[in-house]
Design a protein that fits this description.
Helix content: 55-70%
Shape: flat
Number of helices: 5
Number of domains: 2
Largest sheet: 2 strands, antiparallel
Radius of gyration: 22 Å
Strand order of the largest sheet: 1-2
Order of helices and strands: HEEHHHH
Length: 149
């Protein structure tokens, strides 16, 4: 195991312990069910187990293993991250629905090559379905733009 891998795994163990200690100060369970500390404790345990397993396993990665994906896949990943940033910037200004449609019109051709008609239909349909799911089924208030949508 390389020294930086050893350091990351030890840091993961320490972070897991810290998360568990801090989360144990919160309510873990109450009459209504899991409290505010339940999920962080689970995450801390998961972090400790995975870091510990990596320490115990201690295998070297093969010489052919790469940290970054091939260039085309990396560009798609960057495009998705940029599209999410665009969505976050546009949403308060023009509302969720127009921002989601615009973002998907940019994102879909970058990820999957389809005709523009199929891209437009999918962008509108997915955005309307997501909006309906959050606004009506889950009763979550989504940003509205100047047009009221």
């Amino acid at each position: 195991m390389r020294s930086w891998q050893l350091g990351i795994n030890i840091a993961g163990l320490i972070l897991g312990i810290a998360v568990i200690l801090m989360a144990s100060q919160l309510t873990v369970m109450d009459a209504a069910g899991p409290g505010g500390g339940f999920f962080p404790i689970c995450i801390g345990i998961l972090l400790m187990v995975s870091s510990g397993a990596m320490l115990i396993r201690g295998e070297e990665e093969p010489a052919s293993a790469r940290f970054l994906p091939p260039r085309p896949a990396l560009l798609r990943i960057i495009m998705v991250l940029l599209a999410l940033c665009v969505l976050a910037i546009l949403m308060p200004r023009i509302g969720f629905l127009p921002a989601a449609i615009f973002t998907m019109l940019i994102l879909l051709p970058a990820v999957e090559r389809r005709s523009w008609l199929a891209t437009a239909l999918l962008a509108v349909a997915a955005s309307v379905i997501i909006h309906g799911l959050f606004a009506y089924l889950l009763d979550v208030s989504l940003p509205r733009g100047p047009l009221g949508i």
